[in-house]
Amino acid sequence: MPVVSGSSGRAIAEALAPLLDMEHVELISRRFPDGEGYVRVPSKSIDSVRSEPVVLVSNTYPDSGVLETILLLEAIASVRAGDLSNYKNEEPQSLPDVGPGVFLAIPYFGYSRQDKRFSPGEPVSARVIGEMLARCCDGIAILDLHAPAILEDLSVPVEFVSAMPEIAARLSNEVNPDFILSPDKGAIDRANEVATIGGWDFSYLEKTRIDAHTIEHTPKDLDVQGKIVAIVDDMISTGGTICRASDALHRQGATEVHAACTHGLFTAGAISRLSNHVDGVHSTDSLPNPRAVVSSAPALARGLKNLMG
What we know:
This protein is an alpha/beta fold. The protein is built from nine helices and 15 strands. It has a seven-stranded mixed β-sheet. It is elongated.
C-alpha cells in the first residue's frame, strides 16, 4: 500500500509510511515557467497506486497547495479508474477500474480560520475547500483543525486528529513545565488535553485592558512565581499574542515561558520576535519551519487507521 506525496508533505509522508506498514512513493510535482502547476503519477508507480488503497499526504497551504492537492487527487483517481489515455499515445491507454480507496492526509488545512462568515458577502472559505477535496477522495484525516465543526458533515468520512499527545511528550522530556496555559478561552480544550496527559496544572490567560494601548495577560487562578510555564495553542502566526503573554508572565515571576503549537506558520518575522520574548518554541512539522521538533506523523497515522478500518 503506498503513501504518496507531491511537493508538500514529503517528509511527513516518509515518516508516516512505516507507521502504516506502507511504502512511500513520490509523485511528480513541478512548475511550468509561467508558474502553473504540473503533477503526474510516474509510470513506474502506476501499478503501486492501483494495487491497494492509497494515502496522499498534502497540505492545502499556501494557495498553490490547494491546487496541487486537487490535481494530485485527480491524477491518482484517473490512474485507479484506469483512464490512462494520453496525447503521446503511450501504452496502455486504459486498464480496469480498481474502485475507491483514495485517502487524504492533511497536516495543515489552509483557510482553517475562515470558518464563518464574518461580514455579508463572504464565502465560508474553509467549507469551500473541504467540499472540493471531498469530491476527489474517499476519506480525509486532518491534523488539529482550528474549528472542526465546519467540516463535520462532508460527503466523505473525516477524522480530526490531534498532535497534543506528542506535544505533551516533548514538553515532558525537554521542558518539564509546572503549568500549561491556554492563550485564550478558545484554545482551552487543546491546552487542557496537554495538561491532563502530563499531569500538570492548567489555566487560561485572561486579557485585561489597562489603557487604550495596553492589554495585560494574567493566568486565571494560578500563581506563576518561580514557575516554568508552557503556553499551548493550535497555531502560531505572527506570535504577537504569545510575546505579550510571555512578557506579562515574566513580570509576574515566571522563570521560563515556552510556546508550543501544532502549526508553526511564523509569519512576519515571528521567529525573531519570539526569540526575544520566550525561552523556547516547540512546533510540529505540519508546516516546514525552524522550530519543527515534533513529528505529526503519529497523529495522522491514528486517523488514517480509523478511516481505513
